[in-house]
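Weekly modeling sync, notes
Attendees: S.R. (lead), two postdocs, one rotation student

Agenda item 3: backlog of single-chain predictions. S.R. asked that every request posted to the team notebook include the full sequence so nobody has to chase files. The rotation student volunteered to paste the first one in as an example of the format we agreed on. Action items at the bottom.

Example entry:
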Amino acid sequence: MTDLQRTSLFGAHVAAGAKIVPFAGWEMPVEYKGVRAEHLAVRSTCGLFDVSHMGQIDVTGHGAREFLQSILTNDITRIGPGQAQYTLLSDDNGGVIDDLLAYALLDRFLLVVNASNIAPCVERVTSLAPDGVTVINRSPDVAMLALQGPTWARALTPIASPEPFSLPYMEATEATVAGVACLVARTGYTGEPGVEIMCPAEAAPAIWDALMTVAEAPVPAGLAARDTLRLEVGYPLYGNELGHDRSPISAGLKWACDLKHGGFPGAERMQREAAEGTSDRMVAIVLTEKGIPRGGCAVMADGQQVGTVTSGTFSPSLGVGAALAYVSPDHAHVGAKLSIDVRGKEKSAEVTSLPMVDTSPRKEHHS
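Predicted structure, as returned to the notebook:
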């Protein structure tokens, strides 16, 4: 693993006993004490993730907002300083280059992109930028920690100023955390309330250590728990549910595409698919008998394959096998009876609603 990068928190992960694995060009912690324990801690109290491998791209200059409006799928004119928006960067055919969060800050726009797509995103945005708009890849200089779970504010408040719990969902503010100047955003990838803390890379260990010493310290959580958490609430993962081979419409992301105004690459295809339908749709599936579905497993109905699992796991919250899959429209309704081919054996399953785990009662729990 000598060619892999390490975040500034690598030493903290090793000290905490993390199992380290290669991921998107990085050596990252996949788990510490166990995936199930970390997953359930995030659902019940809070967990702390190192997501410093994510990309950070600044877009500045006169006309930056208009430029981003022309290349991103969502309507970025709807957010003002301090607000964030989920959106996608599409290719000319309407496929997905990446799904990302765009932040409108006082002096710039910040795009937080997936680790595996930093280079393609930088290249795409830079190649389309007009004169007067500057694109800067700040990824090597910025670390990001995700503090996620219902008790996140009780963990962060003792070391943060101003107090963070009044920050609305999908908004960001400058704050001092453990003496470090940070951008704190009420965002995350778990379905739970929480924040993502962006700071200079060299300062991340001080924040990590400070959080681990507060009275209600978070549980260190790895990438495996982050994956099971996002799957339960139906958040797509690039390379699994999203990619160049399909538009966002079949993934249920019409809400993140400004189809009324269009103008971004691939908008015509997305408008057509929204009106006419797609050949398959992303759904959530739970097994009704013992088994664990995995990506690539065939989804069956009446002896015929009607879809394919894109992400599958054992759901710690539900206690059953769960999956995201693309299936034909005729089998995409909640309650549809299906089966999944797990290692050559068909396991009974059915389509369920998203999110599979209802976290809405905790969304506004700030204390």
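Discussion: group reviewed the output briefly. The helical segments are 10-15, 35-44, 64-71, 118-128, 152-156, 204-211, 223-233, 267-276.
Action items: rotation student to repeat for the remaining queue; S.R. to check formatting next week.
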